[in-house]
Design goal:
The protein is mainly α and 101 residues long. It is 46% helix and 8% strand. Strands 1-2 form a two-stranded parallel sheet. The protein is globular and about 35 Å long.
């Protein structure tokens, strides 16, 4: 099911590829499991993620599509493509944050 125009109002321009509702739900469920079972492998925050990429750690980057200011994360998709890391954007910051707390 595609996102409605109201949901896309707060999403930044670079949020591509944007996860649909079904994939977002699956990603959030996965993040909830990982954060409870093996929290050391999960990197949260801009500085920790950037440090992990610089060190050559592999994984998948999940970016919130409604982050503001966008300048905080606009370089991550480029870095991910250069490093060969998969990445995806979620509609809302709260989608991922609720499962990580």
């Amino acid at each position: 099911m595609a996102a409605t125009s109201e949901e896309l109002e707060n999403v930044c321009e670079i949020a591509d590829p944007l996860a649909g509702k079904r994939l977002t739900k699956r990603i959030c469920k996965f993040l909830g499991k990982v954060s409870q079972e093996d929290h050391k492998t999960l990197k949260k925050g801009i500085m920790a993620v950037a440090k992990g990429i610089r060190k050559g750690q592999k994984g998948m980057m999940i970016i919130a599509g409604d982050i503001s200011p966008i300048e905080l994360v606009c370089h991550f998709p480029i870095i991910c493509e250069e490093q060969g890391l998969p990445y995806i954007c979620l509609l809302y910051t709260s989608d991922a944050a609720d499962d990580l707390l």
